[in-house]
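[Meeting: bench + compute handoff]

Bench side (C.D.) handed over the final construct sequence. Compute side (W.E.) agreed to return the predicted structure before the next meeting so the bench team could plan truncations. Sequence as handed over:
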Amino acid sequence: MAPTSSTALAPHMNGLPKLPTPAKITSAEARKLSQSFFRQFATLQEGTPEYQNMRNMLIEMNISLVIFSASRFRSRRPGEMEDIIQVGMIGLIKAIDRFDLSRGVEFASFAVPFIVGEIKRFFRDSTWAVHVPRRLQEARIQLSHATEELLSRLGRTPTIQELSEAMSLPEEEVREARLAANAYSTASLDAVISRGNEGETTAQECIGTEDRALQRVEDLHSLASLVADLCERDQQIIYLRFVEELSQAQIGKRLGISQMHVSRLLSRVLHLLREGMLSSLQV
């Protein structure tokens, strides 16, 4: 039976072991063999079939470095680990293409920072639900660490000023980082946020709509102060016309004045109120 260990396989014509399945060798074997393969790799001309075959061999031999690096990152979504490994492979390929044997550094020590850096870049650029500037992405991470540390030390939620001092950032940038954190992930409008006897409540059912009467409330509040400044007779005319909804003739009869006099008084009062409302809008 043929030996299964790659180091026990017959040597290749260049003095290197022949590896039918490079991806199946152990991490220790890959570490031991990589130096020899890189020496041969450095002598090959880029673009030739021999160069590409050797490059593929090195990639497969060192897949364990990608798996090791990817295991340091907790998967956030089902199936995400597969994406992490694929991104890590990009880092491995970059490391292989840039590795210089003459520097006297082991390939594993050189490659892991490339792989981890590529995975971190993936999380930074691809996992945000809404794109935000990189400085705010980094500030969000700093904010998370500072909040956790201060919460543990103070026993309460830290203030903006305390976070600003801990992060060595202006308070405005801390506020921006907090706001940016909302863009990191999103929730479906169909997500169930509560369950009760009457059934489930989704996020969509809790979203408010524009209250068209809100502006009217503000207008009435402003109008009330203007009406309060009117004299007693003017207030009475307004009350009779718009609350009791009397006609001008009925108001004249109630106050013992003519309808024409009521009309002039009402026009003057409404003009004063209109001017007052316009002035309040311009403030």
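W.E. noted at the follow-up: The CA atoms of residues 130 and 183 lie 5 Å apart. C.D. will use this when planning the next construct.
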